[in-house]
Design a protein that fits this description.
A four-stranded antiparallel β-sheet has the order 1-2-4-3, covered by helices on one side. The chain starts with a strand and ends with a helix. It has one domain. The chain is an alpha+beta fold.
Length: 82
């Protein structure tokens, strides 16, 4: 699920997309209110929207090692303080 929370925030429960976005933009918050699905929240900007579009068009070039390392960081934050 990917959607705009409002004009100021962008939210997604897609772990792969969240990891990619977090390489360029900080995660503002993680909504864990649903125990089955976390929602990552980012500050919405034009640049973030362009990044998401490139992600879905498969136009991003990211080193696999860089991506994997960031995935570990995101998962650590996701599972912290459970």
């Amino acid at each position: 699920m990917t959607q705009q929370l409002n004009e100021h925030y962008y939210q997604t429960s897609d772990l792969s997309l969240s990891t990619t976005i977090s390489l360029f933009f900080p995660i503002e918050d993680i909504d864990r209110s649903n125990p089955r699905k976390a929602v990552f929240i980012f500050r919405n900007t034009k640049e973030l929207q362009e990044l998401v579009e490139k992600y879905y068009r498969n136009e991003l070039k990211i080193s696999p090692q860089t991506y994997f390392n960031q995935l570990r960081v995101v998962k650590a934050r996701l599972y912290a303080n459970e």
